[in-house]
Amino acid sequence: ENMEGDDESTSEQPEELPNAGGGGINMLEGVIYDRKNLTYDELFTYIANTSALVTCCIDAHFTAFQILNRNTLLYYDPLSPSLSVARGERDVHSAALYLLMKCHYGDNAHVQENKKYYMGQSSSR
Fold this sequence. Notes:
Low-confidence stretches: 1-11
Number of strands: 5
Mean pLDDT: 78
Largest sheet: 5 strands, mixed
Helix content: 25-40%
Order of helices and strands: EHEEEEHHH
Radius of gyration: 22 Å
Strand content: 15-25%
Distance between the termini: 76 Å
């Protein structure tokens, strides 16, 4: 074969994804990555109902969790070599609320103004 003088490019262009030119894919859809103006119970309910992925930094370490169903939560801990799992509705609820509070993603003013709601007999858990 004579390759000299062959100026034509035979490389194929990558196939475009649908909607790539008109805004593309929203990679943050279904991801909670900053504070929301919701009580922690409302935020938990939203995350549980949508299976949203929650990402944040705690003490300068990236962490993430996702509620797969009411009885299963997957959690990434940067200090652990593998994913952690919370099982059971009570453990899922406790782990998710703990992480949401550590990330400061809910309405902290509501916590301060309604301590009995979170600490007393009428608390959600």
